Amino acid sequence: MGERSDYASGTFCFADVGTTDRPRAAEFYGELFGWKAQPTMGEYTMFTLQERPVAGMFEAPEGYTPVWISYISVADADATAAAVRDGGGSVLLGPRAVSDEAEVGRTTVIEDPQGAVVALWEPGLHRGAGLVNQVATMVWNQLATPDLDAAREFYAGIFDWSYEPVDGSEPPYCEIRNREGWLNGGAMALPDGDVPPYWHVIFTVEDAQAATARVEELGGSVLEAPTATPMGAFAVVADPAGAAFGFFEGDVDP
Question: I need a surface site. Which of 53, 59, 62, 228 has the fewest CB within 10 A?
Fold first, then answer.
């Protein structure tokens, strides 16, 4: 059922949300997904499901726009950060340990040459999400970028990703596979140059229509109503603070 205890390097392994109102966010995601908010070190909160970590939450600094951040597992954060710089990207934070008291892991936040932000995770005691690809857990991480070809080249150079274009997709879309060949997210070309590039985290739901209605009941907003695709139904919503994330209703490979 999607249980995970480890992630290959170059694989999406976790996501967390930076928010300006942690108590309300904990209530929102608890009601929406059934997550339990478990305080950990410092100001960080771990969301759990079936007693396994599935996502995280941190207090956003003043002036910070609430956002979900996707994490890619790496064997060596320092070496990967150096490769990011060599490839034309930027290192916005770290690499640094997340705790002085335990070898939890090391994090780095990077920006690709087009401006999309994603995080790296060098695992220690925390390996990543303990459950994925099932209802109320992370299922997909998706890049939207104005220059798909350049983005593909950058990430392939850093993580050894390969890509499979989806025939007939408009705007152009490709699936991402990690170095072991496993499906590892997707990337699409932004049709509108006014939209900044971004990484998007998506969670599985049983019923996308019901889930989007529940978001509105809980004080969030629906940014894109459920849309059917050959893979399943997708929707985009935001929590009460404005952090956007996606829903997927469909069958997934555990």
Answer: 62
Cα gap 186→222, rounded to integer Å: 22
Amino acid at 55: A
pLDDT reading at 102 higher than 90: no
CB-facing half-sphere around the CA of 209: CA atoms within 13 A: 1
Q: Which residues, in sequence order, are bridge partners of residue 120?
A: 72, 108
How many CA atoms lie less than 13 Å away from 87 in the CB half-sphere? 25
Secondary-structure percent of the chain, ordered helix, strand, coil, rounded to 5: 15, 45, 40
* Size (the chain), residues: 254
More confident position, 77 or 252 = 77
Residue with the larger pLDDT of the pair 220 and 98: 220
pTM of the predicted model over 0.85: yes
